[in-house]
User: Fold these one by one.
Assistant:
Number 1:
Amino acid sequence: MRILVLGAGGVGGYFGGRLVEKREDVTFLVRERRKQLLENNGLVIRSVKGDLTFKPKLITKTDKTDPFDLVLFSTKAYHLEEAINDLKPFVGEQTVILPLLNGIAHLPLLKKAFGDDQVIGGLCFIETTLNKAGEVVHTSALDRLVFGEPDHQGSERIQRITDALSDTKAEFVLSDHITQDMWHKYLFITVMSGVTTLMRAPIGPIRESDGGRDFIRRLFEEGAQIMKASGAPIDNAIVDKHMQLIDQLGYDMKSSMQRDMEKGSLIEGKHLQGYLLQLAKESHVDAPLLSVVYQNLKVYEKMV
Ligand SMILES: NC(=O)C1=CN([C@@H]2O[C@H](COP(=O)(O)OP(=O)(O)OC[C@H]3O[C@@H](n4cnc5c(N)ncnc54)[C@H](OP(=O)(O)O)[C@@H]3O)[C@@H](O)[C@H]2O)C=CC1
Ligand SMILES: CC(C)(CO)C(=O)C(=O)O
């Protein structure tokens, strides 16, 4: 299977790297500056699950090659439109796009660009970031990528994809309820990135501060109420489940949005909290806590 990874950053670099390690046929679609760095230094992964350095197969948007079978779409949301345009020449009628962005708002854009049937569902749980040298730094053992057909389960193509993604050092998991999984992850990350950026702390001190757990829970409840009101297929027990997950996270665990803020980088507030607030408005649901979380992000964006 010819796999194209769009975006050789924290997520694409890591999962693409684990597939290269297994000797899958992986190419990375990158922009010029990243290409030069990767040509000079190789793609370097510093991981608690084992380091890896390799010379990646690279293309940029103007290169010519046959369409790929599978695309791991792993850019940030604020690069989505440009990335969709750059990807178009490498997508054929049989190409499957597996998006790994946090959130849900990218799905209609991808489907509009590539067709409903060519976009499957995907998400990941991982803690990676690029350091100053452009290396992928993976800081906790978590490296789960979940994927699946949104509508028709057990298709032949998903079986082929599952085979290609199996037996690597990372955890690739096929789901038969990926749409619900994506909404659940969307709820989780909206709250996780929301509280860690608002309180400028990893999850440990937040959940253990006086009233901290209660604040996290109320934000989950607010988000879940909005999602239900807009018809999202979420589980009735999801707030309890997510609170259990919050309690299981390492004391020092941060969100990727928080790490981006610490680096002074752009953030995905509009795509995550902003889009959920838009759904709240459309469904006439009050969202006082989420509004505070989003305002904090907008102030950061004003100053960055
Ligand atoms: N990192 C994490 O721990 C987690 C991240 N996520 C989600 O995964 C998504 C990706 O995040 P992450 O990997 O951290 O982001 P990064 O910023 O680390 O990587 C994104 C990469 O995309 C590249 N890129 C952007 N536009 C293009 C383009 N047109 N063509 C080629 N490459 C392009 C950027 O390259 P360039 O150098 O050219 O800018 C960059 O290397 C986000 O939605 C994030 O929320 C989800 C779970 C965990
Ligand atoms: C859930 C979490 C915190 C880790 O995968 C995440 O998605 C992120 O940091 O963006």
Note: The mean pLDDT is 97.
Number 2:
Amino acid sequence: IALQVLGQTFRHPLSRFPGPLLAKWTVFYRAYYDLCKNGGWLRQLEVLHTVYGRSFIALEQLHFNDARAYGEIYAPGSRFHKDPALYAFGATSSVFATQDPQDAAVMRNILAMFFSRRRVIRREAAIRDKIVELISRLKSFKRESGIAANLDNAFPSMVLDVLTALMFSQPFNMLSSPAFDHPFVRRMESSSLNLWIMKYLPSRNAPILGAFSRFMRSMNPLADVIIALSKLIKDEITSILNRVDLNDVRDRIENINEFSAAAAPESDETDIPFYPFFLEKIQEPTRKQASSTEKTNRLNLLNLRRLIDEGINIRFAGTDTIANACLVGVKYLLAHKDILARLVAELDEAWPADGEISCEELEKLPYLTAVIKESLRLSHGVVSPMGDAVIMGEVIPAGTTIGISATFVHLNPELFPEPTTFSPERWLKSSSSVDEKKDFGSEVNSDKYLVSFSRGPRSCVGIHLARFELYMLFGFLFRKLELTPTVEQDPNSSLYFDDFFTPLYTDDPLCVFTKERVG
Ligand code: HEM
């Protein structure tokens, strides 16, 4: 270690940036916090920024804490690649894991088309059905039943069921598990617990250690769940492609392609399941070059791998993220009775007891919107994406990983005063009320600094579905039910600092008894 530190200290182009010596030139410092302190690197980043200022280097990774750096790194049209150390494992041919934004663009557009706001709105009934199912399941967890509902498990179950209802052929029916404890939900949870181990497994290309790549991959905490998912998804693909007439799918897609998204006809294209849709779209350019007689439904191995990887990735990308935001919001609401009362009053006024309400109407409710934004701000989304360039005036050599965790934006006291306090009211103020003028040059538009879904060319493609689910979930949950937590929630506790960034994975799940408010 000493030789490595000495050698690197004097000749490396990044040596001008500050940082603790051991962290600057070896992996051991960072690995200690992640592996021995249970993913504690994010917390240590905060400590190091207080010592070294707005940027410091840790093993070729330059980390910033200035919210303005976020806008420069995740800018529209940014050409930064994703960090291979973080994305080389798992579903490697998925959009999420594709490092070069240009390589990812075509497949990203296909996903964005599938999850467009228009398509999500047209599938409202399918999403609503799953949320209604959750509410009706929750109703049986009355105090008299003696068993409380575990919301840490209930939310991922509901979110996975929505995804499968929208995209896949074989429903998971997670919500039908008596205690919301379907083995698959538990498996995803336990594999995600040690996610940071992945950062320290050498990639297949790494010298020497790469020879042990099979062994290293077996240590990947996600290996177990990825193998199980791959098998399940392969079966799904085979069954759905046997069932669906691809010529019909092709005609329906060609029909959509003829119209701009806004002017698309009221066709039943929203019914096209994900795999045939994705397969047809990735084959479209090749087919256009080929003559019509060469049209083929053949599923080659490369495309099969892509479909499987996309199926795996979407289940990961679209499950814990939404479930975590729901859990964070509900925990805070149950701790802050005044905030909860204001939300319930707004919902009661907008939603008659015997009536229905659409998601688009829910989206117009200002306090519900503020609660959702605050839940997203304090659940942070994906916290450690990364990306050579000039950032904040610093010339950074090619090959350096640069990044800023979303937590440094969401918890910046100049953008969000008292940042660890759950305060939906901050979103109701006009943009000029947040003091950006002083340090950020112009008035703050707080929305600009809500970066839960990331920004730029690699931002989240599931944002419309996620927003839709959050509105429906918060709306239905607090209009239809009264929740009493089994353990009183402390209004002064901060989920972020007490439970790290993802309370989904703590040992004390949020359990509640329910009482029906309206039918
Ligand atoms: C509250 C819910 C969600 C949050 C907070 C969230 C957050 C994020 C973030 C921060 C990224 C960027 C990650 C990176 O740079 O590596 C991302 C990417 C992505 N998300 Fe989401 N996400 C959510 C829901 C969803 C859903 C429901 C889906 C799918 C149905 C989805 C699909 C994706 C995909 C495919 C990417 C990769 C995009 C790319 O690499 O170009 N997400 N998401």
Note: DSSP finds 24 helices and eight strands in the chain.
Number 3:
Amino acid sequence: MPHDILIVDDESDIRMAVAGVLEDEGHTCREATDSDSALQAIAERRPNLVVLDIWLEGSRLDGLELLDHVLRDYPTLPVLMISGHGTIETAVAAIKKGAYDFIEKPFKTDRLLLMVDRAVEAARLKQENAELRIRIGAHSELVGESPPISQLRGAISKVAPTGSRVLITGPAGTGKEVLARQIHARSRRAEQPFVVVNCAAMHPDRMELELFGTETGVDGYDSPRKVGMFEQANGGTLLLDEIADMPLETQGKLVRVLQEQTFEHVGGTRRVHVDVRVIATSHRDLQDEIQQHRFREDLYYRLAVVPLRVPSLVERRGDIPLLARFFMDAAARSAGIPPRPLGEDAMAALQAYDWPGNVRQLRNVIDWLLIMAPGEPREAIRADMLPSEISALTPDTLRLEKSPEIMTLPLREAREMFERDYLLAQVTRFGGNVSRTAEFVGMERSALHRKLKSLGVAGGAAAAAAASGGDAGQAAPASAEPGLVHGGARGSAS
Ligand SMILES: Nc1ncnc2c1ncn2[C@@H]1O[C@H](COP(=O)(O)OP(=O)(O)OP(=O)(O)O)[C@@H](O)[C@H]1O
């Protein structure tokens, strides 16, 4: 993996020797002769590593003082010191200050290369760990086998290696960030940083500061300079989460950055070059935002090189059992307790519910159930243990809700009503998959198909079956059907 390396040494033969060895390995090297030109080079573009001589003749700051500056302003930038004969003690002091390691002159080529690779790798792991700690509990696995998720998986494998910009839209909590992480993980940038900017959570006045960083300290010359998210993501991917919340003025600046891959620090004049892949997400309809003059059309077309849409969870009910089991196992692992199985009736209710908060809400419910559901540790979770707005959707309850109406009907019509509601609930529960429903209710597939048709539920149902992962073209619950599938709890979820 080639690195961008800054070599700081007052002796030109040492600089040339180090650069020669590193460039032969494919690394890109820049050279600086003193502290000021070194700081300027870092400000222009943050390197992956600084190789720094302890003695810097004729420099404003010596090697150790420069190290202090670099570590203060760029705490995650690794520094490898070069020490001469008799400076070992100073080199040890440098490590105590925070340098990665030191290499003694004269050095062997192999040793230099090894240390360079180790220093960059250690810094990468440190950053990755920090990121993981922040995002603890966030899964980046894309679970689901429904047609829309399979299509998205196919699109990810095509687009990930290309480096194209991607715009991911879809309702909140559907997995847009999961998709973005997948794209990064399968790209050539996978070893480089993945930086997330949450435009919705950030104060609009701070956004440019956070994105582009500052030339000097934010609050005055002596405070550390702020490294913006674009620089932090150099070589990797920057996720602009909820891009519709970005102020129009910042959108204009972003257009220029995307066009030129360069920008200026806030309060600065120098152009900073970066190599960043941008992925953006939005739960809003950006075309609508453009119409309302809240989103720049030129930015839309620069971001939506590859547009992807993640459907809501109700559009792929067939994925609910997989997701529920996945979250149960994950929650149990992180709590260090055994997972609770989900009973048939509980799963049926989970599949019948509308999930306004999408996958995130399902995950929260499962986390809650593992800890709060009554019963023994390995006892199956029943429908009556679910939160009330979800347990209201079990076939039993729904049948009771219907009973007053049933009592006014003759037997044949009452049986038909029950049959229709019962079969709709079962088809919904199996994500519109008629074969699996038939197996469960104990009917031949073709007989069930005929039955659904005779009960008048085959028409609009086919589309629902296709959307929710069932056998496309087969019957599934019509979304407009006011029967027992959605019950009285629709929209009552928190
Ligand atoms: N297909 C999936 N497989 C596994 N986990 C998922 C999936 N989709 C979403 N999740 C999980 O659901 C939660 C919400 O996902 P994510 O943050 O990616 O959604 P989002 O669409 O970006 O939400 P928002 O619009 O609110 O930012 C996360 O915990 C994520 O791990």
Note: Residues 459-494 have pLDDT under 50 and may be disordered.
Number 4:
Amino acid sequence: MTVAVIQFGGSNCDRDSVRALSHLGIDAERVWYEDGLPADATGVMLPGGFSYGDYLRAGVMAARTPIIEAVREAAADGVPVLGVCNGAQIGCEAGLTPGAFTINESARFQCERVHVRVENADTPWTRAYDEGDVLALPIAHGEGRFEANDETYDRLVSEDRVLLRYCDAQGQVTDDANPNGSRGNVAGVLGDRETVAVMMPHPERATLPDLDGTDGAGLLRGFEAALAEAEA
Ligand SMILES: NC(=O)CC[C@H](N)C(=O)O
């Protein structure tokens, strides 16, 4: 399989993402957004960064580029799609996943290590974990506060589409453990299909053993699991 890691002007996690995926034995390559989605892509990663300099709203410009139309079609066909940080913002702006990521409650850019709790381990992206597992992952964003209206939020919860919630080191989901004011401490959600997911924390920065922790590796392994699911 080859995961296309889409690079926009301003993306800055595309190389890290390819490196982390390759480390896991998942074939990945960077694809410049103007070159279009390769027909043989068996996965799509929307990496972190500052596409279009976060102009207007983070992710809004990239979400309106032609390659995202191709990503939408691929996602509908069951191709696994993962958006991380700016990629999560793009995913929500593109309607691949519900809700929105907006300006942090602090109104500041926050770069720190947080804990998230696995809310649903029965998805391709979380299969490597057990429900309730606590992962240490880095965040680095200014617009990471998850918001959704009541109807959308209730649907996400009732359909078990919340993947990760910010928590403390013991796994307690509290306001104090919510770094950015996200509704319900939500850090990651599934799209309409469980092969599509977005998350604000950076699993690719917590995958290589020579970096600080490898708790994110299982999330990236979701590409293999999601593909297997789609082909089943
Ligand atoms: N690390 C990133 O992807 C940055 C996310 C985004 N551009 C923000 O600051 O909100």
Note: The pocket of glutamine is lined by residues 48-50, 54, 58, 85-86, 109, 140-144 (CB under 6 Å).
